[in-house]
Specification:
Elements: H1 5-20, H2 26-44, E1 53-56, E2 59-62, H3 63-69, H4 74-79, E3 80-87, E4 90-97, H5 108-120, H6 126-133, H7 139-146, H8 162-181
Antiparallel strand pairs: 1-2, 3-4
Length: 191
């Protein structure tokens, strides 16, 4: 498997949430990643992890990660321990960290968002997280309930109000163009 910058960030975000929340199972993880990516997109025009989310009955699901979670590739298996655990409401896949969180790949904004989500949802259960993603006017609700596109991909631009969409996307494109002009050297980048 090719390890990209986005893949490294994704693995480290999972490690972060495994260290900084309680009751982390796959459902809670998916929702935390969704909130992180969509809020970051709303602010900057780009996601943190590069994941794509689909509108499934229990909320947004990053299908690529979902396909790996029960039989994780080596990079994920070395970063977190995923095991079935018995709970009051049945079995869940519990996620625990196997290594320390690095944090070196993240901007201050990304770190602030991750800390805020971990604090807000520290003790949340999977059911709490599902409920939070089903609120009206959120992207999952628009695709799944309003448009009736069950299993469809949830476009990131739904994170931004229609009257803000053009400005956010313009800033994201300007940033992308600027990054493409920078030399490809370690330590060179924009927050």
């Amino acid at each position: 498997m090719l390890i990209t910058h986005e893949r490294e960030k994704l693995i480290d975000v999972i490690v972060f949430f495994a260290h900084n929340t309680r009751k982390l199972g796959k459902t809670k993880l998916y929702k935390l990643l969704y909130f992180l990516d969509f809020e970051h997109f709303k602010q900057t025009g780009r996601s943190v992890t590069g994941l794509r989310y689909h509108a499934w009955p229990m909320g947004p699901v990053p299908v690529t990660l979902h396909d790996q979670i029960e039989s994780p590739p080596q990079d994920l298996a070395q970063a977190v321990h995923i095991a079935e655990k018995e709970t009051k409401s049945g079995k869940m896949l519990a996620i625990a960290p196997s290594r320390a969180f690095s944090g070196s790949l993240f901007s201050k904004r990304e770190m602030r968002l991750m800390h805020g989500l971990a604090k807000e949802h520290y003790t949340a259960t999977a059911d709490d997280m599902v409920e939070a993603t089903h609120l009206e006017n959120l992207p999952w609700h628009q695709i799944y309930e309003v448009e009736g596109k069950k299993q469809a991909e949830i476009p990131y631009d739904l994170a931004v109000r229609a009257d803000e969409r053009e400005a956010v996307l313009r800033v994201a494109n300007e940033r992308k163009e600027l990054l493409e002009k920078l030399p490809n050297e370690p330590g060179v980048g924009i927050l």
